[in-house]
Every structure is written in C-alpha cells, then in structure tokens.
Amino acid sequence: MAGSTVEITDANFQSMILEADKPALVDFWAQWCGPCRIVGPIVEELAQTYGDKAVIGKLDVDSNRETATTYGIQAIPTLLLIKGGEVVDKIVGAADKKTIASKLDALL
Q1: pLDDT digit string (tens) for 43-66?
Q2: How confident is the model at residue 1, as a pLDDT?
C-alpha cells in the first residue's frame, strides 16, 4: 500500500506494526492537536516516498488509548520508529521532514 499512510488502531497495531517485515513509523496524533496538524502532512509525504520500504501509519490517541498507554505516549505528536517489533527511536513534538526522514533512513 505504497503512497498513503495506514490507519493504525489498537486492533491492528500488532499485525500492521509489530509483525511488519519492514521498519515502521507511527504518528500518534489527535484531531484537536495543533502541532499534529503540522506533522500530519509531513508523515503523508513520507508515506509516498517510503511507502514500499516502510510501514507509515497514523494512530489517533483518542480512539486508541490502549496502544498509546502501552507505549507511554504522554505528549503528541509522538512518532515511534519500530523495527522487528521493538521501538528503536522516538520523536516527541513537531519535527521537520529532514529530521524524520533521516531517522527513517537509519532503519532501512
């Protein structure tokens, strides 16, 4: 599914992210979050660039509290970079495309 972000939920986090055969970037966000609206379009662009090399997904923390709690997400936006079922990097707060892309490149 190259080209767009995947909607990640409590129900599919395990299969889509933890069991993925490639690295994953998960954007923890919420509709009401101002900085999330800055990061959202960047994550969408990265999905178009990295869509076939990585799983790029967005998880709405209001609808999926279980996963957000499991990973200790206290501030949003938070981006988790996951490889082989393990969190290998994390970005808290709004980050620019170059920063996020370089962290993603490190996993490929």
Answers
A1: 999 999 998 999 999 999 999 999
A2: 42
Told to judge if 36 belongs to the known catalytic residues of this protein, a careful annotator would answer: yes
Helix axes 34-50, 97-105, angle to 10 degrees: 50
User: Which superfamily, per CATH, for 6-105?
Assistant: Glutaredoxin (3.40.30.10)
The whole-model pTM stands at: 0.95
Q: Is the confidence at residue 14, as pLDDT, over 90?
A: yes
Judge whether 9 counts as a catalytic residue. Answer: no
Active-site position among 8, 24, 33, 42? 33
Alpha carbons 106 and 25: distance in angstroms, whole number: 12
Domains of the chain, residue spans: 6-105
Find out whether 44 and 5 touch, Cβ atoms under 8 Å: yes
Which residue of the set 8, 36, 42, 76 is catalytic?
36
